[in-house]
Amino acid sequence: MSAGKFITFEGGEGTGKSTQCQLLADYLRQQGYEVILTREPGGTDGAELIRALLVSGDVNRWSGVTEALLLNAARVDHWEKVISPALNRGAWVICDRFADSTIAYQGFGRGLDIDFLWNLHNSVLPGVQPDLTFVFDLDPAIGINRALSRRTSEVRFEKMDIEFHNRMRHGYLEIAKNHPQRCRLVDAGQDINTIHHHLQQMIAG
Predict the structure, then answer these.
(1) Separation CA 200–CA 161 (nearest Å)
(2) DSSP E strand boundaries for the chain
(3) H/E segment holding residue 21
(4) Which terms under GO biological process does the entry name (predicted)?
(5) What are the CA-CA distances from residue 169 to residues 3, 141, 146, 179 (Å)?
(6) Is this model's pTM higher than 0.85 or not?
(7) Residue 55: inside a domain
(8) Does some domain include residue 1?
(9) What is the Cα–Cα distance from 178 to 20, expressed in whole angstroms?
(10) Domain encompassing residue 33
(11) Burial class (CB in 10 A: 0-12, 13-18, 19+), 55
(12) CA nearest 65: which of 126, 125, 107, 104?
């Protein structure tokens, strides 16, 4: 059986990556692939409970360290129960956020040491990296306005100040620059169809 592919979508709030995850999953299914579409934090019953703790409530509910530990706990559960089994049976996994989000949010955004966060990831999931990562880039002011227009209670991070979101954007650009073998930068200011076709081309390439 051919090996599965692990594709992650990264970016700040309101960049449109979740929409593009769904479109790419639909496209790949039409091509005959088994596709698992999932998200982080979340993807399992336990990880979804952790998600609810992280993305709702007061901005100051958790420290950056607590967030990082909760995220990694959720990620291990997600990997062990969903992602790894799917890849082992030859499925494609499309995941809305993965470890890069922890680097961007808790590292660049919240100010935690980047090496500490990578070491934490490599301690709990040694050697685990996506095959391909799409990094969606957009002016944070535009993205936050988009995100806050959605009817959802999951707005804890959206409510953080613009400086946090600017640092996070810088973090994502650094991640894309430092991991060119797997990261592809996407201009999230383009229209939905243009982005979708661009992703198709990058998958084929």
Answers:
(1) 34
(2) 6-11, 35-39, 92-96, 132-137, 183-187
(3) helix 17-30
(4) dTDP biosynthetic process; dTTP biosynthetic process; dUDP biosynthetic process
(5) 32, 11, 16, 16
(6) yes
(7) yes
(8) no
(9) 24
(10) 6-204
(11) middle
(12) 107
- CATH at residue 64: 3.40.50.300
DSSP strands (E only) in 40-86: none
pLDDT, tens only, 2-16: 578 999 999 999 899
Token readout for 15 is 């960049």
Judge contact between 168 and 12, C-beta under 8 A: yes
The one-letter amino acid code at 161 reads D
Tokens representing 173 are 């650009």
DSSP character at residue 53: H
Residue 61 lies in a domain: yes
Tens digits of residue pLDDT in 19-67: 999 999 999 999 999 999 999 999 999 999 999 999 888 888 899 999 9
Burial of 95-115, coded b for 16+ CB within 10 Å and e otherwise, reads: bbbbbbbbbbbbbbbbebebe
Cis peptide before 130 (omega within 30 of 0): no
The number of domains in the chain is 1
**Quick one: CA torsion of 165, 167, 171, 172, rounded to 10 degrees?**
30
